[in-house]
Amino acid sequence: MSTRDENSVPPGWYPDPAGERQWRVWTGTAWSEVTRSFGDPVAVHTGAPRGLVLALRRVQSVGVLGVVGGLGLLVSVLAHWPGTSHPEPAWFAVAASNVAIALLALGTTACAFGVRELEGRWSPAAFVPGFNLFIASALVNRQLGIRPGTRVLSEVVMLVIFAYAARHDAWLGLAPVVVAYLELTWFNALITRLNAGTRLSAIS
Questions:
Q1: What is the pLDDT of residue 168?
Q2: Best CA proximity match to 65, nearest among 116, 92, 42, 99
Q3: Which terminus of the chain, N or C, has less C-beta within 10 A?
Q4: What is the DSSP string of 55-116?
Q5: Which has the closest alpha carbon to 180: 111, 127, 80?
Q6: How far is CA 146 from CA 83, 140, 184, 186, in A?
Q7: Coil, strand or helix: which one is 44?
Q8: Phi, psi of 187 (to 5 degrees)
Q9: What is the pLDDT of residue 74?
């Protein structure tokens, strides 16, 4: 494994890379001289639970795009619903709104499972469409050691402004794109960190 990969591994007790039947301390930058035999009880980092990584990948690939994309499409369809000043054909409005609802349902389900894996239990809030994405995002930031309050609030405000004023200002359609990009970035950061933990046994 390269030095770059090794430096991403958190400090702790790991199997001796020299092949000896013992634990050795990894300081975060180098292997120390401190060792313990396999018979001694130690807290060993075993990497991220497989279910958590899979759930985060589903939120990243389906949850974010489903919730944000579904919301964006639904707001756009309602802004041009038959009877408004710039209406779409009725058949298109109905079809597009059904697609938007399906996207929201898929995204909400993916986010619910993500919240479940991050919290370790089911929560009623995990099933609130849209809201559960930001719950998952806040939990991801917490795992990364970042306070999510201001960032999550700013994203919610962007989406609320988009939903309220997109009919009059088409450029506000950028708001869901920005929110989706930011969410994908944070989820990817945690997935990358967790995957680094699963490669610990490959250090040599």
A1: 80
A2: 99
A3: C
A4: HHHHIIIIIHHHHHHHHHHHHHHHHT-TTSSSPPPHHHHHHHHHHHHHHHHHHHHHHHHHHH
A5: 111
A6: 46, 9, 16, 10
A7: strand
A8: -65, -40
A9: 93
